[in-house]
What we know:
By secondary structure, chain A is of the alpha+beta class. The first copy, chain A, has 17 helices and 18 strands.
Amino acid sequence: MDAPEQSFLREKSLAVEDQELAVGTLEDSHAAKPETDAAIQLPNKSKPDKSAVEKDREDFREAVVKTLDRLLFVHKSFDIYRGVAGLYDFGPHGRTVELNVLSLWRKCFVDEEDMMEVACTALTPEAVFNASGHVKNFTDLMVKDEVDGAFHRADHLVKSYCENRKKDPTISAENAAELDKVIAHVEDLSAEELGGVWNHCSSHEESTFSSSSPLQLDVSNFLWSKCYLRPETAQGSFCNFKDYYNLNGRKLPFAVAQVGRVFRNEISPRQGLLRTREFTLAEIEHFVHPEHKSHSKFSDVAKLEFLMFPREEQEKPGQFAKRLCLGEAVAKVSVFVIIFAYLLFDKKKKLILISTTENVLGHVNSETLGYFIGRVYLFLIRLGIDKERLRFRHHLANEMAHYATDCWDAEIECSYGWIECVGIADRSDYDLRAHSEKSGHALVAQEKLAEPIEVEKLAITPEMKELGPAFKGNQKNVVEALEVD
Amino acid sequence: MDAPEQSFLREKSLAVEDQELAVGTLEDSHAAKPETDAAIQLPNKSKPDKSAVEKDREDFREAVVKTLDRLLFVHKSFDIYRGVAGLYDFGPHGRTVELNVLSLWRKCFVDEEDMMEVACTALTPEAVFNASGHVKNFTDLMVKDEVDGAFHRADHLVKSYCENRKKDPTISAENAAELDKVIAHVEDLSAEELGGVWNHCSSHEESTFSSSSPLQLDVSNFLWSKCYLRPETAQGSFCNFKDYYNLNGRKLPFAVAQVGRVFRNEISPRQGLLRTREFTLAEIEHFVHPEHKSHSKFSDVAKLEFLMFPREEQEKPGQFAKRLCLGEAVAKVSVFVIIFAYLLFDKKKKLILISTTENVLGHVNSETLGYFIGRVYLFLIRLGIDKERLRFRHHLANEMAHYATDCWDAEIECSYGWIECVGIADRSDYDLRAHSEKSGHALVAQEKLAEPIEVEKLAITPEMKELGPAFKGNQKNVVEALEVD
Lengths: 485, 485
């Protein structure tokens, strides 16, 4: 990038940011709607031509990627054999950066928050992912290109088909609205529904794609037992919950941290390190009592101010992330959701902080979420992330994984736009309940009540000497039926 | 174990050790053969009843394993689903121990020896292990038990069959000798030969085993490309050799270190952590000029004295490891082998130091091996290993992996006996040559000579005007044939 271009972009970018701040301030001060709307329009006028910005970003990124490759920070794995898409190695400098990031993560979370760090295996028996719902829910529908043999995700193809169709100037307003609806809801569709939509789309145009078929994620067939390679480290922590709980003196809350390699069967890896088939994930499961989600150290972070992007703001057109005080945001946010913590950092050296509860009863106390959002913010700032390029965005309802009842992402603005690098999810009791049911081991915590609770219970005591003559041979069945609660 | 039993065992054990030292001293002083032989016999007399010692070891081990399990140092993975044989998790204490061991390893090797630490992927395309010989050579012949569905390695079954047969009192001396021969050479057999031997063995007795069939190691089928899970981290370092060499300013020697999870498709995992299907491996590849294997820091370790067990000592009956001075041992050992460095520490948190050379020319300078044996000794002692229970044993010729031209193991005596925990192998140019041939990329180092070497070369210069009339239409083929070296 030339210096004049850079300064032009920087200027425009600052103008946009100033305008965003102005909008935020107006909204915070409850300005009249027309005034706010006018301010929202302004940034669009001062924005430089989108395609020029994008081209510039791409050139800049290409230069950075080439340098990182040349200096072996990160480079394609097994390049002498032309590599495999989505696999990257860290050279000496890259590995050093990774070790430093992990060391800071360990200090900020494991040490300072007194967590248990454990290490489970990547190989995971099939039963675990059947119970967790990964096998059923992460079965991406894929489509094979019969010409070049490449695989593509059906939802991506449907989206791109709809976006291309919309560019047709002859299309009716009604059809355009329908296409918008498909784009907005494609992620809500089941595999079967998606297959139907794709068949409909592909019948409209010349296509080299074969019909769609489901793809199992992360499967690794070992002779001795069907195993998967884990796509997250969390399931090991969930399966061992009872052991960790006992080791913690049967007290809640406590947190279990893991760092390790995870594997994802990406159909078409892209965007460099953002979608890879193998990467290091740093995860935390924070287990809390479902009725006691306040956090004793929340006041340490309550006064932090940074960019947040709540769900209801995203649903209005032309809105931006706003600088909010965490303490106030938590009070505000908690009115409409129960939120918990699940953090990721970067697809390659991903840091995750997950909070799960044994049972979610609908309480709206989200100090625990707020606390971990604050800790993640402090961690990322200490890592050197520019606070103007960091925001916490609330997931929309149709974005969340099957196990999440709520999710916030820490997003960093880079040459690919705003990219999720830490995820904060409330998994509620989804995983513990699923494994309890499928394994037959109750993964629950126990609580000693200050006062015993007395409950009156109606019970049936069969009078055998009456039942005998009345039911004869069926007496036993009758007694059994009566004993069922 | 009761206190009196313990003290009895300790006494006997000390007596054995004293006797071993006495034998060593006699041998060192070149005592007459009968005197040495008599000393060798003595330890056998003072040894306590073998089965009592073994029972005691087993009880002790069981108690330790139970404690480690209860305190979550290490425990079966996915136990709520009854687990998978050969998969273990580290709980908080175990993970802390692992991190401390890796941290000391990083300090002793990566930092103090100025190595490059890198991180390659565990997923590895098939072409890599075809080239490295793993697919062909680590294809264990296995046998399925038709009754319980369990798999067993054919070589283990053959050994156990022969050992059982030998217990038959009616067996002839000739047959017993034959069985001994089979036991000694079962590891030399090809899969086909082994299959023949097993069929012969199994035809002699009632057996529920089906016939043997080969088992591929570590295979994981991904839709997009056939990949294996690495059984060692080394292949990534070999494939990237040229990049690391360039980054090092095209200078030899240099070393590449890696720590990461590796996977082995053990047919029947056993002995707790000693044979697992997934574990962390710490490996070092030390690349040296094949003609300059001296080591500039060898004098730092030359005066160390510890137990060594050379190959020729193992081949004589009744021999033991002897305390040798490393500097003298290297001089002695180098008379008959070229030795290089490949270190492992414990099957679970295995540390490996591998040295490879671009080309082995048969020189006998093994200072580099000696240096790394010394460094490994110092590392293990700093880790807290009892030096009386640590020895360096030379591999016998039929023990070595297909890629090794020589191998020494650091062995630690534990409740399972003397167990390999660090391996030191000379892989010569095996891997670099194999990948050069299969990939078409020359993985070689270049050397600038002080003086140019002048070579006289006979060359053919075709005289076109003579060839034309003589060969007419075939002129072109003749010229091409002449130009081939």
